[in-house]
Write a structure and sequence with these properties.
The protein contains seven helices and 15 strands. The strands form three sheets. It has a nine-stranded mixed beta sheet with strand order 4-3-2-1-7-6-5-9-8. Helices cover 20% and strands 31% of the residues. It has 348 residues and is α+β, with helices and mostly antiparallel strands. The chain has two domains: 170 residues, Pleckstrin-homology domain (PH domain)/Phosphotyrosine-binding domain (PTB) (PH-domain like), CATH 2.30.29; 113 residues, PH-domain like (Roll). Pfam families: PH_NISCH_C, PH_PLEKHM2. It is found in: Cytoplasm. InterPro entries: PH_domain-containing_M2 (IPR053015), PH_NISCH_C (IPR057714), PH_PLEKHM2 (IPR057288).
Length: 348
């Protein structure tokens, strides 16, 4: 350990997405290659000596306790735990986090020493993994509210790779085996006798960690929600969701030192007749077992919606991934793209 292939793979994966800004401390981590990266892991992050680093991924993450603060993290998967390496600015960004994060290193603030904090979730505490629609994100759930983290990969390949690596590492855990399941037929396995509704597709790993995948009903519910937001003339049967993707909306900030752009996370949904932007809650649903009350906001909140027939042109940037698209709409009544959608958008 580690094999040459693993070294090469981890080095290749150690790249911060170009559109996201990170602190100096995380830039330092992203500059490490091969052996230096493994030594950094053992010297600064690993909690036990015989721990092996198996996978590295850069991703935006959300914590259950701070659902509004999406932050960039270097996610490290070892044979013992999942580590989220975050920059120090995240801790100081929100005063309400003081009970969640221990601020013991504030004496470093005025020096040239750049601090990162590391959140560790031990694999033995892992209970379930919820994979989001079209593998755009996944949520890891541990024993309490402190141990719920969503990784917003915005990339089905990254999600799939991480889940594969996690399953492989969980197979090494020595847990008491579950009792042998009684052979069930398909309907009793996935159907609820009281409602007749299909449950989400659930895979129970040999380590007793549940991997839960969305079923067709989630798309049906989403289609129903989208139809509600439309002009009411749409036939739900003919409504098809053609695309669901986690994206960013670019808000140009003028008047700053350099005319910078702020990125607002949005869920983009394309149907055969409309284009929608939603603010989605990626962390609260489905409700964890210990949740005593429903979340304060709905899973999907409409931020904007436009008819495809009003689309005048689409401008494409020439940069490599991630691609920037500008949608120019020709709807005279609604002058600018972002507006108050509590009003009936499609009415007079």
């Amino acid at each position: 350990y580690p094999s040459e292939f693993l070294m090469q793979k981890i080095t290749e994966d150690n790249q911060i997405p170009v559109h996201l800004h990170v602190s100096v401390s995380l830039q330092y981590v992203a500059g490490l290659k091969g052996n230096a990266l493994v030594e950094f892991f053992h010297g600064n992050i690993a909690e036990v000596e015989n721990e092996e680093l198996r996978h590295l991924m850069w991703s935006s993450v959300l914590f259950y306790k701070t659902p509004n603060a999406e932050v960039m993290a270097c996610v490290l998967l070892s044979t013992k735990a999942i580590y989220f390496l975050l920059d120090d600015s995240f801790i100081h960004a929100d005063e309400h986090q003081s009970d969640f994060w221990n601020k013991e290193n504030s004496d470093c603030e005025n020096s040239s020493f750049h601090l990162s904090c590391c959140f560790a979730l031990k694999l033995n505490d892992l209970q379930s993994v919820n994979v989001g629609l079209f593998d755009q994100y996944f949520r890891i759930t541990g024993r309490s509210a402190d141990h719920i983290v969503t990784c917003l990969t915005r990339d089905s390949y990254n999600t799939h790779t991480f889940i594969q690596q996690l399953m492989a590492v969980l197979s090494l855990l020595a847990r008491t085996p579950s009792p042998e399941p009684v052979d069930k037929d398909f309907y009793s396995e996935f159907g609820s006798k009281t409602t007749g509704k299909m449950e989400n597709y659930e895979l129970v790993h040999s380590s007793r960690v549940k991997f839960i995948y969305p079923n067709e009903e989630e798309i049906g519910d989403l289609a129903f929600l989208v139809a509600e937001k439309m002009d009411g003339l749409t036939n739900l049967q003919s409504l098809n969701i053609l695309l669901y993707v986690l994206a960013f909306q670019v808000n140009h900030v003028e008047g700053s030192a350099q005319n910078t752009s702020s990125l607002q996370p949005k869920t983009l949904i394309l149907t055969s007749s409309d284009l929608f932007l939603f603010d989605e809650d990626y962390i609260s649903y489905p409700l964890p077992e210990f949740a005593k009350e429903p979340p304060k906001r709905d899973k999907y909140q409409l931020a904007d919606g436009r008819r495809i027939r009003d689309l005048d042109r689409v401008l494409m940037g020439y940069q490599t991934y991630p691609q920037a698209l500008t949608f120019v709409f020709d709807d005279v009544q609604n002058q600018d793209l972002m507006q108050n959608l509590t009003l009936d958008h499609f009415g007079e």
